[in-house]
Write a structure and sequence with these properties.
alpha+beta, 2 domains, 3-stranded antiparallel β-sheet, two-stranded antiparallel sheet
C-alpha cells in the first residue's frame, strides 16, 4: 500500500491513499485530530471491526455494544505503557459469547502489528518539479 503525505498549510499533515484522505492537525488551532490520536483510534476501531464481524456472523444485535479504550502513559517517558479495551455489552448479550467476543477483538491487525512491529527505513529522494 502506498500513501502520499502532504502539507496543506499551517500544522496540517494529510495522508492520501486510494479514494481516502486522513486529515491531521496540531494544537493550538486544531481542525482535525493529531496524528497520534488517529494512530490510537486505529487500535479501538480495528478491534471494533472484529467485534462487529463476530456479532454479525452470529446474528447478534450490536445495539448497546461499545468499546471503551483507555490509554495509560508512562509519567517519565511520556510513552504509551498500556492500552485497555473494555467491550461493554448490554445485559441481554449472551454470556456464553463474552470470552469469544474478547478473542475476536484480540485478532485486531493493528494490535498484532504493535506486538510485532515492522522495520522502518526513512530516506530522502530529490524529485524534479513537474
Amino acid at each position: 500500500m502506498e500513501m502520499i503525505i502532504d502539507f496543506p498549510g499551517g500544522l496540517k499533515v494529510d495522508a492520501h491513499f486510494g479514494p481516502f484522505t486522513v486529515k491531521t492537525d496540531q494544537p493550538p488551532s486544531s481542525t482535525a485530530p493529531t496524528p497520534f490520536a488517529v494512530f490510537l483510534s486505529s487500535i479501538g476501531t480495528c478491534a471494533g471491526i472484529y467485534v462487529l464481524g463476530f456479532c454479525q456472523q452470529r446474528g447478534l444485535p450490536t445495539d448497546g455494544i461499545r468499546i471503551v479504550q483507555r490509554v495509560y502513559s508512562n509519567p517519565f517517558s511520556g510513552g504509551i505503557e498500556k492500552v485497555d479495551l473494555e467491550i461493554q455489552v448490554p445485559p441481554s448479550f449472551p454470556e456464553k459469547y463474552r470470552p469469544s467476543l474478547i478473542r475476536s477483538a484480540e485478532l485486531c491487525a493493528v494490535k498484532k502489528t504493535l506486538e510485532n512491529p515492522p522495520a522502518f527505513d526513512v530516506t530522502t529522494k530529490v524529485v524534479e518539479p513537474a
